TrEMBL record:
This is D-xylose-proton symporter. SUPFAM superfamilies: MFS general substrate transporter. It catalyses: D-xylose(in) + H(+)(in) = D-xylose(out) + H(+)(out). The chain crosses the membrane at residues 14-34, 54-75, 87-106, 112-133, 145-167, 187-206, 265-290, 310-329, 336-356, 376-399, 411-433, 439-460. Gene3D superfamilies: MFS general substrate transporter like domains. Its main location: membrane. InterPro entries: MFS_dom (IPR020846), MFS_sugar_transport-like (IPR005828), MFS_Sugar_Transporter (IPR050820), MFS_trans_sf (IPR036259), Sugar/inositol_transpt (IPR003663), Sugar_transporter_CS (IPR005829). It comes from Fulvimonas soli. It is a multi-pass membrane protein. The keyword Membrane applies. It is found in: Cell membrane. GO terms for molecular function: transmembrane transporter activity. PROSITE patterns: MFS, SUGAR_TRANSPORT_1, SUGAR_TRANSPORT_2.
Length: 473
């Protein structure tokens, strides 16, 4: 599939096998997207069925993100101790259990419990998949293979929203009963059992990360995996690669939080950059679109069926632009795409804020007069385009590759935990912000997009084409 000379002087090929291995690992991203977005179609039915207020429904939607932060925090140490593959299998089991439990809840608090269990699985998958993909990928295609994680996430979001729309349509509404006497919103959760079990089965067939194997002194196995994924036939070249990995890892001990300490505010500069990349990815408000969009469009005058259709269409746009990002990441680079994305999001979010400032009424009676409804729809989809081609995939690519080998797993865990906490803040506060005014909410997200532009220009380093062994603190 292509041969290049790596910066280490080794001839490396992007084999079909490594593409399949990366795609299998990225299925965790599919579950990540599915599990976090599936609540979109159930929000109104759950709120009405359990009689929840704005703060309560915000908690019910966002509680999974607290679990995700917990899962992301412990994923690194688990992966370093038990291996990347075993940790992915644990994530699959947690997600399957959570899907079943969420579909059979009897009240708000057991929904919160099962959503948190699923969130832990999502958090683990969100850390391990990009780490694993980065560690098995040749440098010249690592960006594209790393972007498979984001492609899988947006496909998961699309399938979740499509299944929500189909189930609600089949029942005549999300709150209506469908099969086995269960409401359609319950089936929205239950169907997630299937992809979780598929993911668990698929990752049984992928090899362990060569860098983890070297760290655990399992050199013969590491040699064989490198032979497979890089298609290296020269034994001397394999020996050089193993020595290089050993030198970069310096794994006489397991990475600890103490290894992340640095001179600036207690952490290494690269760790702060990873944390801020994660925070800004969420503070621009993208998950408001994917968690609340059906409710949002319904609230401004669209029917429930039309609101589902709009939401599915937006997720299709997200998938298509992610494919564009995959084509560009190793040609254009990470930083230029982030710059374009931040500028575009700031403009489109500001336009959305202006549109909603023209709304009349409040609460369920809120309405957007002509022509502001269609303009808001166009702005929302343009915003998704700018996010999908930049901050969506680029952050995951960077988090998987930007840290030095010796701290990669634990640094990524910290950055991913920060991402989930930021996601929780945005998701849990949106219902209350929406009651204050949608113009205020989207104006706030526009301000964060503008700040993210300044951050990228001055703080983010380009990593295109660099070997993992070249990353520095």
């Amino acid at each position: 599939m292509g041969v290049v000379m790596g910066n280490d002087g080794l001839e490396q090929r992007a084999t079909a096998r490594v593409v399949l291995i990366a795609a299998a690992a990225a299925l965790g991203g599919f579950l990540f997207g599915f599990d976090t977005a599936v609540i979109n179609g159930a929000v109104d039915a759950v709120r009405a069925g359990f009689g929840l207020g704005a703060g309560q429904i915000g908690l019910a939607v966002s509680c999974a993100l607290l679990g995700s932060a917990l899962g992301a925090w412990y994923a690194g140490p688990l992966a370093d101790r038990f291996g990347r593959v075993r940790t992915m299998q644990v994530a699959a089991l947690l997600l399957a259990a959570a899907a079943l439990g969420s579909g059979l809840v009897t009240g708000m608090w057991d929904l919160v419990l099962w959503r948190m269990v699923g969130g832990i699985g999502v958090g683990v998958a969100s850390v391990i998949a990009p780490t694993y993909i980065a560690e098995v990928s040749p440098a010249h295609v690592r960006g594209r293979l790393g972007s498979l994680q984001q492609l899988a996430i947006v496909l998961g979001i699309f399938v979740a929203l499509l299944s929500d729309a189909w189930l609600a349509g089949s029942a005549g509404g999300a709150a209506n009963r469908l099969w086995l006497g269960l409401e359609a919103w319950r089936w929205m959760f239950l169907v997630a059992v299937v992809p979780a079990l598929v993911y668990g089965a698929v990752v049984l067939g992928v090899p362990e990360s060569p860098r983890h194997l070297v760290a655990r002194a399992r050199l013969p196995e590491a040699r064989e995996v490198l032979r497979q994924v890089l298609d290296l036939r020269d034994e001397a070249a394999l020996d050089r690669k193993l020595v290089e990995i050993e030198h970069s890892l310096k794994m006489e001990y397991r990475p600890r939080l103490a290894d992340l300490r640095g001179p600036r505010f207690g952490l290494l500069p690269v760790v702060w950059i990873g944390i801020l990349l994660s925070v800004f990815q969420q503070f621009v408000g993208i998950n408001v679109i994917f968690y609340y969009s059906s409710t949002l469009w319904h609230s401004v005058g669209f029917s429930e069926a039309d609101s589902f259709t709009i939401t599915v269409a937006t997720s299709i746009v997200n998938v298509l632009v992610t494919l564009v990002a995959i084509a560009l990441v190793d040609k254009v680079g990470r930083k230029p795409l982030l710059v374009v994305g931040s500028a575009g999001m700031a403009l489109t979010l500001a336009l959305m804020a202006w549109c909603f400032s023209q709304a009349s009424g409040s609460g369920a009676a809120l309405a957007l007069p002509a022509p502001w409804g269609p303009v808001a729809l166009v702005a929302a989809n343009a915003y998704v385009v700018f996010f999908g081609v930049s901050w969506g995939p680029m952050v995951w690519v960077l988090l998987g590759e930007m840290f030095p080998n010796r701290i990669r797993a634990i640094a990524l865990a910290v950055a991913a935990a920060a991402q989930w906490l930021a996601n929780f803040v945005i998701t849990s506060t949106f219902p209350a912000l929406a009651e204050l005014g949608l113009a205020f909410a989207y104006g706030l997200y526009a301000a964060f997009a503008l700040i993210s532009l300044v951050f990228v220009v001055y703080a983010v380093r380009e990593t295109k084409g660099m070997e993992l062994e070249e990353m520095r603190d």
